[in-house]
Amino acid sequence: MRAMWRGSISFGLINVPIKMYAATENKRINFRQIHRQCGTPIHYEKVCPTCNRKVEEEEIARGYEFEKGRYVIIEDKDLESIPDEATRTIDIIDFVDLKDIDPIYYDKSYFLGPEETGQKAYSLLRRAMEEGGKIAIAKVVIRSKQSLACIRPYGERHLVMETMFCPDEVRKVEEVPMQPEVKLQEKEVKMALQLVESLATKFEPEKYTDDYRQALIDIIQAKVEGEEISIPEPQDAKVVDLMEALKASLELAEKAKKQKGKSKGKAREKVAGGV
Length: 275
What we know:
Layout: E1 5-11, E2 14-22, E3 47-48, E4 53-54, E5 62-67, E6 70-74, H1 76-79, H2 84-87, E7 89-96, E8 106-114, H3 119-132, E9 135-142, E10 145-154, E11 158-164, H4 186-199, H5 211-224, H6 242-272
Parallel strand pairs: 1-7
Antiparallel strand pairs: 1-2, 2-8, 3-4, 5-6, 7-9, 8-11, 9-10, 10-11
Helix pairs in contact: 4-6
């Protein structure tokens, strides 16, 4: 795995040299825009609408719109005025309980690995957080943006960092329009709880797959091989009584649970029989 960032974690007077690695990867299928007539990918050019001509790379500057239609140009030398240590240090501010952080604040995950000279300090920080039951809240600058972040033990020996949104970047849920509060029947609540309990299980991330991406891959492969793509007929949405839907869902969940139990039983019998 290739490091995307090098710097250090700072807490108190301790400095931990680290490398940062992307912890996740986006496996989304990307499409190109193609000229339908000849099959050539569409090409884009950078054009200035005022000068009405193509602009070369060396003519392009970095700008910020401070008023509608008015920009200030920010040069590289302007950014150099920011102290370098501010852009290369993960500065721990506080230690808190993980349960106190609402997941809505999480943005992107990164693995943190120690530099050769920082192995002991890295292990010490990890051990202290693990035994103390705390995680670190820090500030970090990545790609010209400062973010809040939390650092926590991950796996048996590593640390992981999640960048976080600042409070002013999280929208107010009160802005979401809601209908007047509805009155729920006790029977409906009880049945909904039964449905939740029947579907409750241990979280095993390996069993969840991106079905839509696989369907896209199948369609692409079929098109490459010249196969005809069948389009399913749209189903009319039916208005279903809530209680009837709960009952039907509960029956399906119970049936699926029994089927799963039978499958596990057969698997154990095969193992016991040496098959």
